[in-house]
Amino acid sequence: MVSQPTYAFDPDAIVREIRIDARPEIVFQYFVDPERLVRWMGAQATLEPHPGGLFRVDYGPEYGAARGEFLAVEPHRRVIFTWGWENPADPVQPGQSTVEVTIEPADGASRLTLRHSGLVGASRASHDDGWAHFLARLAEAATT
Question: Under CATH, what is the fold of the domain 14-143?
């Protein structure tokens, strides 16, 4: 049995849950396949979906790129990666926050739960808005 990574509980974490009308194995691909990831967020992605592998999403000149590393990749079930912005002026730098995505079967569809921890101050509100926007786009991309 593979041991499961554990992370400190953050009571201030952003938690979003969404139902997606696609099976978990399809939804999972939208977090590990660069071509699928950019269908719902970013303009370009470099993903090395294994623990220690690069997670990088470029949003273009206006927003720059988010970068981190994969901490856990459990096919069709869970992905955990660190997150931060490459712009040195941004308060959330690469590796300073963690995103955990769990995907569970739900009557022929998927229930996705996203938990983004380690955010502080105004960055929490802006990331909460961002995840609301992008998860809606993910639901659309995974079902079309």
Answer: Alpha-D-Glucose-1,6-Bisphosphate; Chain A, domain 4 (3.30.530)
